[in-house]
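Table 4 source record.
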Amino acid sequence: MSTFVGTDDADAQRRMRYFNNLYLQSWFSDKVGIIAGFDFGFQQEQVKSAHFVAWWSPIGILQYKISDQWNTALRGEYYHDPSSIIISTSSPIGFKTVSAS
């Protein structure tokens, strides 16, 4: 787990941001393992506002150990940033995407 509390705005526009990265890694056998993660954060909508906007992203990674020297993995992720906090966009629904690799 990692956590960030602070801002990345200039002093005049300082909005508080809170971000957490949670993950769990486990091996089911000597060859198969998983990583499950969840990133989420929220930030003040305006300077000195009591209203916050949020973003979040769950991920899953399935790992397979081919040999002592080779591993492979399959990763899936969903990213949900409806207020365009992290990913700037002009879309009225913000930024939402699904990916796999």
